[in-house]
Design brief:
8-stranded parallel β-sheet; globular; binds (4S)-2,6-dioxohexahydropyrimidine-4-carboxylic acid; TIM Barrel; 13 helices; alpha/beta; binds zinc ion; 13 strands; 32% helix; 5-stranded antiparallel β-sheet; 20% strand
């Protein structure tokens, strides 16, 4: 066996769906999968129902996660139209960042009014960054606002050539900006839509093959790989108005290890973008705890990603049929073996909620 040891991996962009959308996924089913795929920390997005916009809601979500988690969980706050930015800011010490949906997507969270955007950029106290779903020209607006209000901007799921080139330009000019890219935007493009139909629909949408090439060509500008794991049921996807989003937690590491196998990525590139940069950008616990958490991978394993048999309620993947290299054999969380040879050994609650407000 070609054994590789990786540090605990961080997925900085997942939709845990609780509260409000438990039919798409539940905490109890979700967490084992993360551990099994080497992800030991996930950062949860706020577009739940109700959205995570206040300290009370953050605390309620933290309690849910603390009871069920077998991996560590950080929680984003969300900016809403009807929550005073000062109220949201009061919960900032307990959150991994503030998420602002500037472009339209799943759920009710959306902020497009310039005065409201300015208020959130002015008020957010950190230490976590302001993370934005901002497509196209709206990205330029967010870059300008971050610069004007001295904020660290984290750009979610960059998908187009123009966007990655703009971020490169901003970094060259010293802007405090970081960004992430998803496996679906690295592996798929609009040419896959006839084959995938609604299972290839997400926001931002799959872009052109040239956009995809540009993401790989500008990998040095990309700080994190992140799934944007956004499960919707197979029935919802087959319905008349399929919601945008695809699951990704169970397929990200195998796909990235395959890119390493093919020489499109180095193992260092992978570790930097799934461990070092996420830890730095989102101020996650570092030091001793990290040394006690690791992932053992059999790099020689080769297999096809299945059509079903995933641990999500939705149980499908846009990558079904892709041949991948590399399988997780063991995961150790704070010196405890939590996954070995396909079996999750951790009890619910073994994971920690990062910087949680008082959790009983
Ligand atoms: O495709 C998406 N789905 N994009 C988002 O920004 C939200 C997500 C979801 O929550 O389903
Ligand atoms: Zn998004
Ligand atoms: Zn998302």
């Amino acid at each position: 066996m070609d054994a590789i040891r990786l540090p605990g991996l961080v997925d900085v962009h997942v939709h845990l769906r609780e509260p409000g959308y438990e039919h798409k996924e539940t905490l109890a089913q979700r967490h084992p999968r993360r551990i099994g795929r080497g992800i030991t920390t996930v950062l949860d997005m706020p577009n739940t129902s109700p959205p995570t916009a206040t300290l009370d809601r953050l605390a309620a979500k933290a309690r849910l996660a603390a009871a069920a988690a077998v991996c560590d969980v950080g929680l984003f706050l969300g900016a809403t139209r009807d929550t005073d930015p000062l109220i949201t800011a009061a919960a900032a010490p307990y959150a991994c960042g503030l998420k602002i949906y500037v472009s339209e997507t799943f759920g009710s969270l959306r902020l497009e009014d310039l005065a409201q955007l300015m208020a959130f950029f002015r008020t957010w106290p950190g230490p976590g960054p302001i993370a934005v779903h901002a497509e196209g020209l709206l990205l330029a607006t967010c870059l300008a606002l971050a610069q004007l209000y001295g904020q660290h901007l984290h750009v979610c799921h960059v998908s187009r050539r123009s966007e990655i080139e703009l971020i490169r330009r901003a970094k060259q000019h010293g802007a405090a900006v970081t960004c992430e890219v998803t496996p679906h935007h690295l592996w798929l493009c609009e040419d896959d839509l006839p084959r995938l139909a609604a299972r290839g629909q997400m926001k931002p949408p799959l872009a052109t093959a040239a956009d995809r090439t540009a993401l790989w060509a500008n990998l040095d500008v990309i700080d994190c790989f992140a799934t944007d794991h956004a499960p919707h049921t197979a029935a919802e996807k087959a319905g008349p108005q399929p919601p945008p989003g695809v699951p990704g937690l169970e397929t990200m590491l195998p796909l990235l290890l395959t890119a390493v196998h093919e020489g499109r990525l180095t193992l260092d590139d992978l570790i930097t973008r799934l461990h070092h940069n996420p830890t730095r950008i989102f101020h996650l616990p570092a030091g001793g705890q990290q040394a006690q958490t690791w992932v053992e991978v059999d790099a020689a394993a080769v297999y096809d990603l299945p059509a079903s048999g995933y641990q999500t309620l939705c149980d499908w993947s846009p990558f079904s049929g892709y041949t991948v290299h590399g399988a997780v054999r063991r995961v150790v969380l704070r010196n405890q073996v939590v996954f070995a040879d396909g079996v999750v050994l951790a009890a619910p609650g073994a994971g920690r909620v990062l910087a949680a407000p008082v959790v009983e």
